[in-house]
Design goal:
Layout (H helix, E strand, L loop, with lengths): L1 H23 L1 H37 L5 H7 L2 E4 L8 E6 L2 E7 L2 H5 L1 H4 L29 E5 L10 E3 L4 H4 L6 E3 L6 E2 L5 E3 L11 E5 L2 E4 L7
Antiparallel strand pairs: 1-10, 2-3, 3-4, 5-6, 6-7, 7-8, 9-10
């Protein structure tokens, strides 16, 4: 009989162990589901953060790109000189700086022989060298039209065209040309400095003739 009781106890305890194992199995599976959920949430949040960072950086990156106005300022500028009277000057803007287009008369061109000996800018400087396609004396493609950057090489003022009236400012020796209103630096009708304190000639920008009456500033002539 003890043997039978032992068998009954073994039979009774065996289901109890199985029940305990059954109750314990869902716990790891539930923890695994929670771990997967957390991993999914982390990945989702990381992805959303990356997307937010990307869109948030667009204005910052865009701030480094040139604006439409800046791009326009860097483009070549076409000047119509058909209405420019002989002896008159026409200003325009190129890259934010004043350019001067002077339509010279025969009398203006005749003064250059005398002012050739008065010019002060005789030291070579690559930043102020004339383009190879302009004449050395009149500094132009077409002698009638002078194109220079209208910024005084002393302190950056815009020189004013002065003919006979310039003698009242600089004296009877004045042959005519451009006078800076700040410190009375003088440039002849070729933009060459003939009175300081300006140290350099008015630079000749890249330019070409698109037609006899249309000048494009910012582009050199096509190679021939």
């Amino acid at each position: 009989m003890p043997t039978d009781d032992s068998d009954e106890r073994e039979t009774f305890t065996s289901p109890a162990c199985s029940m305990h194992e059954f109750e314990r199995d869902p716990v790891p599976r539930s923890a695994a589901r929670r771990s997967d959920r957390r991993r999914f949430l982390r990945m989702s949040l990381t992805g959303l953060g990356a997307i937010g960072t990307f869109f948030g950086s667009i204005p910052f990156v865009r701030s480094f790109l040139p604006s439409a106005r800046a791009r326009a300022l860097g483009n070549p500028v076409a000047i119509d000189v058909s209405d420019l009277e002989p002896g008159a000057v026409k200003p325009c803007l190129y890259r934010g700086e004043t350019m001067l287009v002077l339509r010279r008369t025969k009398e203006m061109l005749a003064t250059l022989a005398a002012t050739d000996e008065l010019q002060l800018d005789t030291t070579p400087d690559p930043d102020y060298s004339d383009p190879s396609y302009v004449n050395r004396v009149n500094r132009a493609i077409d002698p009638e039209f002078l194109v220079v950057r209208g910024v005084c090489t002393h302190l950056g003022c815009v020189p004013q065209l002065k003919g006979e009236e310039g003698k009242q400012i600089l004296g009877e020796w004045w042959p005519g040309g451009f006078i800076c209103p700040c410190h009375q630096s003088g440039y002849d009708y070729a933009g060459r400095v003939i009175r300081g304190p300006a140290p350099r000639n008015l630079p000749v920008p890249p330019h070409r003739f698109a037609s006899p009456t249309r000048i494009v500033i910012g582009e050199p002539p096509a190679p021939t």
